[in-house]
Amino acid sequence: MNRRNFLKLLMASGLAGTFATSGRSAQAASLHTGKVLLTLHLGGGWDHSSFSDPRENTAINRWASSQKAGGAGNLRYAPMAENAAFFNKYYNHMLVLNGIDIQTNGHEAASRTRNTGNLMDGFPSTNELFAAIVGSGLPMPFVRQGGFDGTVGITPFTALPDESLLRTLANPNFYYDAKTYYAPSHLDLLHRYQQERLVTQQGQADNLPRWQRKLDELQRARGGSAEIKSLSAALPGALDTNDLQGIRRNGIRELHMFLVLAAAGLTATGSFGTGGWDSHGNHDAAHTNTMTEMARLLDYLWTKAESMGMADRLIVHVTSDVGRTPSYNSTNGKDHWSLGSDFIMAKNAPWANRIAGISGPVHERVKINPNTLLPDTNGIYLQTKHVHTELRKLLGIDTHPLAQRYDLKAESMALFNPAVSSGITV
Description:
By secondary structure, the protein is of the alpha/beta class. It folds into two domains: 36-161 and 227-405, Alkaline Phosphatase, subunit A (3-Layer(aba) Sandwich), CATH 3.40.720; 185-225. It is 35% helix and 14% strand. It has helices spanning 3-13, 17-22, 83-90, 107-116, 126-134, 163-170, 184-202, 209-223, 226-234, 252-263, 283-307, 384-395, 401-405; strands at 36-42, 70-72, 75-77, 94-101, 142-144, 158-159, 174-175, 179-180, 269-274, 314-320, 323-324, 336-337, 339-346, 354-356. It has an eight-stranded mixed β-sheet with strand order 6-5-9-1-10-13-4-14, with helices on both faces. Strands 2-3 form a two-stranded antiparallel sheet. It has a two-stranded antiparallel ribbon with strand order 7-8. The termini are far apart.
């Protein structure tokens, strides 16, 4: 496919934002080979007590009447859903951030601060900022399937494309159900005559300068097909639809598609989301279902990334909006709370298998020393601004002028220092 037709397809599907603003004309894009950031947003507010910050207190966790909290490596987990299998498999990938002071118990503001590091409008999500800094020349620098949808306009996001469109981008001769429009031999003949016609046009003595430049641009465009070749090489004959247990699950196809785009170098970051976490009633049953789904999606993601040679490049931030109360209401649910937990994953990271941040016996805020991460009455509360400031450092974008323009004004905190940890404190 030549670049002009590639751009037409992108325009038709809403994928051309970065091409339209990049000013690169027909120059070929540089494919992304660096870190890939994926954010998984647990919409509705997940319960830290039911996952990474459990309490053996029946008022907080009903399972505590008959079970103990589990442990894997240096981490601690609630014995619910498939937590045990997940923690035992991935504790060396996980940095758990407990006791995050969200500063609000409203969905919208909490979602904003947990994805941007600021309660107020006007700050980009770390996905958008990362895409703007490292992916400005990519066809789809920021891919979005769900999750936080706020932007400040420094780079457009691309809705995760339909599979048939993706296959058309990879192979413009593709027709649905693995058929083709033209026989390859016929297509080769068309391309040959097309090129001969262009060369003849370029050789006309009476071409005006502007027309000559356009013909030359078209010639360069037809030679600049690195994106198409990389996508075609990365795209398998079929995208996965089942989790690792062989069960068809929403989100698997989309995660596979994102990994294909990342492996092809066409994107730098993606935002994904799952719902059902707002458990005002029947909390334990609701969270058992949603945590199982989360564990299955992440297990698939890391296993597939490993098989595609992508695991060493992947950084995954799992976040939410509000937290949940340290008690059950009259309908066995849990309501909104302004304290929560996140976790960040990378393959066998030196800063993983650690806990940073502390919440009290009934999930109160606890001040910590920013250097030792231990309790300190003269310390500071861990907030979302600290999480995103340190995540920017991890991604290598913190000193970029664009990051400085959106400075979160957070104190430095040793979240990714493998030498220190808050440890298990209950």
